[in-house]
Structure prediction request, 580 residues.
Amino acid sequence: MKGLLFPKTLKNRLIVLLLLCSLFPLVVIGSITHTSMYEMLKNKAEKGIMNNLHNVRLSFENTLSQLNHASQQLVFEGRIGNKLNNYLTTENLFEKKQLYQEIESEISLIHFTNPSLGLIFYYQTDTDEILFKNSHIREDFNIFNLPLLAEQLTLTYYGPHFSLNPLDGYKVLSVVRKVEFPHRDDVYLYMETDFKLTDRILNADDLLKDTFYFFVDNNNRIAYSENQDDFPAGRLMTDTLEDARKDKGYYLFEELSNQSWRIVAAVSKQTYEKEINQWINKFVFFAALSLVVSCLLAFMIWRMIYSPLLHLQKNIRRLKNGRMTELPGLKKDVAREFAEIHQEFSAMRVRIDELIRDIDENAEIKRQLEIENLLYKINPHFIHNTLDTIRWLARVNGQEETDRLVSTLNRLLHYNLGKGQLAPIEEEIAALKNYVTLQGVRYNFQFDVQIQADDELMRMSVPRFILQPLVENSISHGLKTKSSEQGVIEVFVRKESSTHFTMGVRDNGYGMTEEEVSRMLSGESVASRTGMGIGWKYVRRLLELNFPGTSSMDIQSILGQGTLITLTLPMIEQEEATLC
Prediction:
């Protein structure tokens, strides 16, 4: 797995990375978009279904409420119910005929003022007699054997069911209400809706065409179903829910009416997820198209990067194998950066060719330098031996001053020409004392060199021959040689901190102006009476070479009073310096 994600060659790594760059945004954005769109479309579908279901439920509730309201006018408590009671109890034929006409007229008026009403009649259960019907009735009717929807005291709701009117054939809702007369209980009122009202309500769903509705009574049984195969009437709702979810592949949505019945909308999963599936198909198409375009762009990027690198690799191999002739150039359409790399490589090839020739030319020079180096090592040895010979001759002839001076010079030369760039402070001070002794003989004026050094710093390492140039400049150029005042030079070595110490040279000579001090600190040459240009540059160079970034130099001078030069160096003991 690791080898697939992190291949060894640049070619395969570019392929993997470019594919990941193409796939990663698509997968991340696609996942987020799919989740968001799926939830949005799902909520849209559910909201639409629930809105339609709510409208259907309200339509049926309003229809049943109208049936209830209209039926109240036809029972005993209503105006028509009283006339019906008189009609059934009177023996006077004239009065009976008159009541019949009035009741029939009242029923016609109620039917006319309520367009949603259909068949209306009274039914006597004892005699199977039908009274005051406003339309035809099937011969095999049974008002008590209809799909029960809900029962409320003397009122029973039925439906949807086929109309009892044989000329109709449409589904209707109906209500059967017992007409409670004081001396009889065999009269019932039947009233149903208009023959097309139920179909108009059930077919009002224009969002999902394949929606099936079924009604559940207050006993939790299906009273009516538009899909008898999957949701048969008379079955318990709990069993139907379980089967619909597991086997039938339906989503069920229901609403409870205030009349204790429920209406359920059954939507097939295929219909419910139709819009979601359409969006998924579009997403897959555009995702595949985006992937193809991304792969093409990735392939172009791969060729844009890998081809020039492969060309450069071939040129490097030619150069490695000693083929120094002109190397093949890149194509004209290559990126400017790769063209510049190729130009730099060609220039490097030319430079390598020149360096090889320089190496051959300098081989002889190197051999000559080796001979000169041997002579350089022989000459100091010859000087030491010669000085020793002079010292012994002076001692034999009793010339003690000459003996002392030659011995001092020999020790000073031995230290200055010694091996290694660094030396302990104690050796540097000893060499400085030898130098002062020789200078005391050379100059004809009086000066005093005072040296103060902390004992704990005597093993610290300093660049060899670093104090002598500073003291020499003070003696040669800084002291007032024509004055009767004795010149004093102070040399001190003090501990500055736990990591650094200071070395200083102070004189009471001419001093310098602020401009001369600034020029010396900035590294410029100073042409003045102090004559410190060469010695100062030498000391600066020693510190830069041996302690870059960890040392510093400072000059404090007052014109006519003297100069103080301070060096700050890191604390490195001689053993550590030797290891370094």
User: Anything to note?
Assistant: The two ends are 47 Å apart (CA to CA). Residues 443-579 form a domain with the Heat Shock Protein 90 fold (CATH 3.30.565.10). The mean pLDDT is 76. Residues 10-72 form the longest helix (63 residues).
